[in-house]
């Protein structure tokens, strides 16, 4: 079932790339395995998936530890409190949800020196939801420049979780704002290569607007109840 779902999602991505006249390898699939156990991750791995996204730190660390024998890449895509930065810095390969300097500084200080740099995206609140996490677009450049200067981290790009849109056109409009910000940061020489946006319901719109990494959970693993 997971293998079939994975192939279906890959086909959706390839189709969206084709429609956007982008090469089919322009978009990386991150499988969001939150709330599913290590067996589900293992099943996806057997079907060829190696990159996994997790929201809840404690749950993730259990899975990462249980699956240490597999060559998996783990991405933290959930909110990070200050008291969780050490465990994140010690276990993950990527963090998509850096939205303030304090968190980035702690990750930088706590990244174990024997590990490669932690790959980081700045989470941006493009559609301005007042209660949402993510740096405001007008503050993203300063934060990105500060993060790019921290040892132990490598700034890779921008991540966004817009509110679900009512249709394709509306979704595209919001993703285009994230793309615009990504381009603006690169115009300042930040050399970003990752635009993390798009989920099960809206990956086509995200790919249309230039996403390079879609984070897909339910379309692969099923509903989370
Ligand atoms: C849960 C989650 C996803 C995956 O959502 P689906 O709708 O299940 O594909 C992607 N990104 C983030 C940040 C999430 O929390």
Compact overview of the structure:
The protein is α/β, with parallel strands linked by helices and 225 residues long.
List its traits.
binds pyridoxal-5'-phosphate, 225 residues, TIM Barrel, 9 helices, alpha/beta
Describe the structure.
- The protein is 41% helix and 17% strand.
- The protein has 225 residues and is α/β, with parallel strands linked by helices.
- The chain has a single domain (2-220), classed as Alpha-Beta Barrel (TIM Barrel), CATH 3.20.20.
- Strand 4, helix 5 and strand 5 (118-123) form a beta-alpha-beta unit.
- The longest helix is centred in the C-terminal third of the chain and has 20 residues, at 168-187.
- The radius of gyration is 17 Å and the shape is globular.
- The two termini are 17 Å apart.
- The mean pLDDT is 97.
- The site of pyridoxal-5'-phosphate has 13 residues, from strand 8 and helix 9.
> Major sheet: size, sense and barrel closure?
8 strands, parallel
User: What is the H level of CATH, i.e. the homologous superfamily?
Assistant: Alanine racemase
What is Rg? 17 Å
> How large a portion of the residues is in β-strands, by DSSP E?
15-25%
Unique bound compounds: pyridoxal-5'-phosphate
């Amino acid at each position: 079932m997971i293998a079939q779902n994975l192939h279906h999602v890959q086909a959706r991505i390839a189709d969206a790339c084709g429609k956007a006249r982008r090469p089919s390898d322009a978009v990386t699939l991150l499988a969001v395995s939150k709330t599913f156990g290590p067996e589900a991750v293992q099943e996806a791995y057997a079907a060829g998936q190696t990159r996994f996204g997790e929201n809840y730190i404690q749950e993730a660390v259990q899975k990462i530890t249980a699956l240490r024998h597999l060559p998996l890449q783990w991405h933290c895509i959930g909110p990070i409190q200050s008291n969780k930065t050490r465990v994140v810095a010690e276990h993950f390969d990527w963090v998509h949800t850096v939205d303030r300097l304090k968190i980035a500084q702690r990750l930088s200080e706590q990244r174990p020196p024997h590990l490669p740099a932690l790959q980081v995206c700045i989470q941006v609140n493009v559609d301005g939801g007042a209660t949402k996490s993510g740096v405001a677009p007008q503050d993203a450049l300063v934060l990105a420049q500060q993060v790019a200067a921290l040892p132990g981290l490598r700034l890779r790009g921008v991540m966004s979780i817009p509110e679900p849109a009512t249709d394709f056109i509306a979704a595209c409009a919001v993703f285009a704002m994230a793309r615009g910000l990504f381009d603006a940061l690169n115009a300042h020489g930040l050399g970003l290569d990752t635009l993390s946006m798009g989920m099960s319901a809206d990956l086509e719109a995200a790919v249309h607007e230039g996403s390079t990494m879609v984070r897909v959970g339910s379309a692969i693993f099923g509903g989370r109840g």
